[in-house]
Amino acid sequence: MNSLVLASLFPVILLIGAGFVVARLGWVRSTAVKDLSNLVFLLLTPALLFRTMSTVHVDQLDFKPVAAYFLAVIFLFGVTFLLQGFNRRAAVLALAATYSNTVMIGIALVGLVFGPAGLVTLLTLVSVHSLVLLTSATVLLELAVAREQAAVAQSRVNRNPVVTVLMALKNALLHPVTLPLLAGLLFAQTGLRLPAAIDKPLELMSLAFGPLALVLVGVTLAFTPVGPHWRSAMALVGVKNLLHPLMVFVLCRWLGVSGLPLTVMVVAAALPMGANVFLFSQRYGVAEELITASVAVSTAIALLTLTLALLLVS
Question: What is the DSSP string of 87-145?
Fold first, then answer.
């Protein structure tokens, strides 16, 4: 079992390590990190999300196992905001505690261990994983930003709270994450297929997203002092890699989900943090060093935590 987990994790660790090395060698300067982050977030991410959602037919999916997964997500989001308050940091930390690397690691691991039957269940989650989590995080972050801006402007002008909420929702909708997700989902319901001339460039950009995002994590890690953040990173990783899958296991049993669907949902929850969490922290300028350290630590110890999760469900 360890060898299968390692086989899926090794490419991710290697790509993060490659980014770290090239930054240490001076091939990428710290001043270029923001530009690389914008490239991934504003160009490659929308291409990946639109193309992924453009083939999702909602009426063909079994959402009962997915419901157990997202009940755990809702609980962890709520607790994070309760402890941290309603702000950008809370939104990013909540996303870090719940957003799994379901594509680069999850698909490879589940395909190796459980075969096509397991992949069907995982892809049902994948089809809505980014839509639900990234859209929710975007809306909450934009609301938090609007709240902060309103607080700053409070002494100058009394701003209608309804206007603040509407502006935040508009910003969340016209966003490089939310817009391509919703556009792809709507396109899928038409039954049409993307022309090859459009689909091929989107496919190439989608394939570039994962490697470049992980290399960027390594580059940022090279410029980030992890030492001061390792305790906080370990606490956040404990929630993501251990508490999240344990909660999914309990909720699946409570909802009557068993067998392979239960196993796949628990493994998906036990996957390390996805690189999109890092991109969100960069985009909104919050907890950047902590999230960078957490993504690296989460990936490094996933060999152990994924093995524990597989033992739990087996």
Answer: SHHHHHHHHHHH-B-IIIIIIHHHHHHHHHHHHHHHHHHHHHHHHHHHHHHHHHHHHHH
Domain count, the chain: 1
The residue range of the domain holding 239 is 2-313
Are 112 and 70 contacting, i.e. CB atoms less than 8 angstroms apart? Answer: no
Say how far apart CA 98 and CA 267 lie, in whole Å.
13
Give the DSSP letter of residue 154: T
Give the C-alpha separation, 275 to 264, whole Å.
21
pLDDT in tens, 112-165: 678 777 777 787 787 778 778 888 888 888 888 887 777 666 544 455 556 656
Cα–Cα nearest to 275, from 217, 233, 221, 220 = 217
Q: How many helices (H) and strands (E) does the chain have?
A: 14, 0
Residue spans of alpha helices (H) in 154-195: 161-173, 178-189
Separation between Cα atoms, residue 234 and residue 32, nearest integer Å:
28
Q: What is the pLDDT of residues 216-269, one digit of tens each?
A: 878 877 887 777 778 889 999 999 999 999 999 999 999 999 888 999 999 999
Cα distance between residue 3 and residue 16, in whole Å: 20
For the four alpha carbons of 215, 220, 223 and 225, in that order, the dihedral sign comes to negative
Q: Choose among 188, 175, 212, 172: nearest CA to 52.
A: 188
DSSP category for residue 27: S
Half-sphere exposure of 88 (CA within 13 A, CB side): 16
Phi and psi at residue 175, to the nearest 5°: -130, 145
Please state, in angstroms and rounded to a whole number, the distance separating the CA atoms of residues 98 and 241: 9
Q: Which of 275, 217, 216, 200 shows the shortest CA–CA distance to 47?
A: 200
- What is the domain-level CATH number for residue 63? 1.20.1530.20
Is-contact 16 299, C-beta < 8 A? yes
Where does residue 126 rank: exposed (0-12), middle (13-18), buried (19+ CB within 10 A)? buried
Q: Are 295 and 217 a contacting pair, CB within 8 Å?
A: yes
